[in-house]
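Question: what's this shape?

___
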Amino acid sequence: MSMRIRTSALTALTVAALAVGAVLTAPAAGAAPRAAVPKFLSASQLPPHPTSSWTAGPVTEGFPEALGLCVSTEGVLAYDYRHREFRTDLDTNAVQLTVVTGTAAQAKALAKHYDDLIRTCADRIEESSPDVEAEGRDYGKLPVEEGARVRGLHTETSWGATDIALLSVGRDGRTVTVVKWGQMGDFKNAPVAAFKKTTSTAVDKLH
């Protein structure tokens, strides 16, 4: 066989192999596209602090300990958890969690589960800690994407420590986000209107 014939045969085999490889690696027709990674709040989108600016930490894989008081992974599937923490130079802090589920139905159920945990958090704190008084408040729903809800939590210990937190749960498609803001103080120190704006922004920019 001549060199020209062998070269032509090799070229033909290479083209055929590439064509087969393209078929094997091409996405199947009608396959669901991979969801984009959820976007997070920036420091400037947190409720403004009167005397200190916010600093945003890196986006980190995993579930944040900062949500552990009211929200946890107990009884929840091992979803794709990511979070970002924020702080000021004083006593104010915040955290955002995003959870990507498999379906919109799973996300809806997860959002309700998280909201139920926040709604019942004050009672659970008092049951587990007799020296702590806790009160929760419902600040209502927000009409953003598939919806969000904002709640407040105030705790006071027997030795006088008092803390206020605002928490929200929102959903966009099959992605759920939880946002928490907290500092020393009580309900009169809670920037509810600004936090509602932060929550709407968090849900709106997920995808």
User: Anything to note?
Assistant: The radius of gyration is 24 Å. Residues 1-33 have pLDDT under 50 and may be disordered.
